[in-house]
Structure formats: C-alpha cells, structure tokens
C-alpha cells in the first residue's frame, strides 16, 4: 500500500462527508442557491491568494530543479490562469473585481489558510505537500464525480466550475502531487508518517468546514 492509499483509507469517512455535503450535491444537481455559491466564490478567491503562496514555498523547499519547476508552474497557473478565470466566472454572479479585492476572509478561511502556511513555513516539503493535497485531490475527485451527473457540466452557473476541476489537466496536476507525496514518504520512519497523516487529516477536516461555511454563509461569530 502506498502512503497516499493509506491516507485515503484513513480519511475516507470525512472524504465521503465532503463529497456528500449539501453544497456539493446541490451544485451537481443544479439546485444550489446562487447566493451560497456567490459567497463561496468570494471566499474561495481569498483562499486561492494564500494557497498560491504554498507553491512558492514549495519551490524554495524543493531539492531538485524539476520539482522546483513544477511548483513554479503551479504558482504561475494559480495566479495568472486560475484566478483570472475565477474573476471572469465571478461576473456571472455579479461579483466585481473590486468586490473580490475588498472582501474579507471568514473565520474558516483564515484558520484553514493560516494552518497550511504555518505548516509550509515550519516543516519540510513533505509536510507542505501533505497539508495542501486534500484540497487539490478532493476537488479533482468531486469534479470528476459531478461530471458524471447528466447535464451537470452544462449547467448555466455551476457547469464551468465542475468542468474546470474535472479537466484532464487538473486531474494530472492532482496526480502529480499525490505521486510526489508518495515519493517524499518513502523510507520515512513510522512516527514521521503519522505526523504527515495528522496534517493531511487536519486539512481534510478543513475542507469539510469550508463547504459548510459556504453553505451557511458563515461570517465571524461576533
């Protein structure tokens, strides 16, 4: 069993809750309230700004030029392609670029991104990859799953999101990151593997919290 397979088995109950969350399921059926998705788009944009920094840290912590290049490519794609598409897509929900730039992150967004950045800055490359992978891996799985629903990828409002993450290029990116973690985990002692497992589990939980936050349009408690 590879380390990624071990992780998948460990977090499977939470993983399934992510996939079965009402936000995700209603998006696939086209019945999600547009205001909820609008809220999600704004928070996800703020999330991506911080998430992109992890790729920059990954390029610094990589020990070979090829891996450095892959992280640099992911940073460029996130900042200059994915976020541009995000801004363009946001217009469907009457979200202006000004609104995106002036928006403030909700409590879950802050907690989730700050956790990953702390792990990325304080740990090694394996820790960084273990913390950022659940988002990428689960989005690839969710996109692929929702694409199987007849008409989902053609939906006026949610089809573009589904197609983006079901796309072969994103699937390959997720698989590359999974493979990288498996390589980094090779020959590590069990106590270090458990440490990586805990980080992967934490950000998998944060993924659920992010969907739930968007569904309930949560802000700060006070």
Provide a descriptive summary of the structure in words:
This protein is mostly helical. The chain has helices spanning 3-19, 22-29, 34-61, 65-90, 97-102, 107-122, 125-147, 159-166, 168-185, 190-216. Helix 6 crosses helix 7. It is globular. The mean pLDDT is 95.
Compute the number of strand runs.
0
Number of helices: 10
Classify the helix fraction into a percent range. over 70%
Radius of gyration: 17 Å
Topology, pairings included?
Layout: H1 3-19, H2 22-29, H3 34-61, H4 65-90, H5 97-102, H6 107-122, H7 125-147, H8 159-166, H9 168-185, H10 190-216
Helix pairs in contact: 1-10, 3-4, 3-6, 3-7, 3-10, 6-7, 6-10, 7-8, 7-9, 7-10
Gist of the model:
The chain has 222 residues and is mainly alpha-helical. The protein has ten helices and no strands.
Notable traits:
mainly alpha; 222 residues; globular
């Amino acid at each position: 069993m590879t380390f990624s397979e071990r992780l998948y088995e460990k977090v499977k109950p939470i993983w399934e809750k992510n996939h079965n969350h009402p936000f995700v399921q209603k998006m696939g059926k086209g019945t999600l309230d547009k205001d909820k998705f609008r809220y999600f788009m704004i928070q996800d944009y703020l999330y991506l700004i911080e998430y992109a920094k992890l790729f920059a840290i990954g390029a610094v912590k990589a020990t070979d030029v090829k891996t450095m290049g892959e992280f640099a490519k992911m940073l460029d794609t996130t900042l200059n392609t994915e976020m541009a598409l995000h801004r363009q897509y946001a217009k469907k929900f009457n979200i202006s670029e000004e609104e995106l730039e002036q928006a403030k992150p909700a409590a879950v967004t802050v907690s989730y991104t700050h956790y990953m950045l702390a792990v990325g800055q304080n740990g090694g490359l394996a820790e960084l990859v273990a913390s950022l992978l659940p988002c990428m891996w689960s989005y690839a799985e969710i996109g692929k799953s929702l694409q199987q629903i007849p008409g989902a990828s053609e939906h006026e409002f949610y089809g573009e999101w589904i197609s983006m993450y079901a796309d072969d290029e994103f699937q390959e990116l997720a698989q590359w990151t999974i493979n990288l973690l498996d390589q980094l985990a090779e020959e590590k002692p069990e106590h270090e593997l458990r440490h990586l497992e805990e980080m992967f589990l934490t950000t998998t939980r944060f993924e659920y919290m992010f969907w739930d936050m968007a569904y309930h349009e949560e802000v700060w408690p006070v």
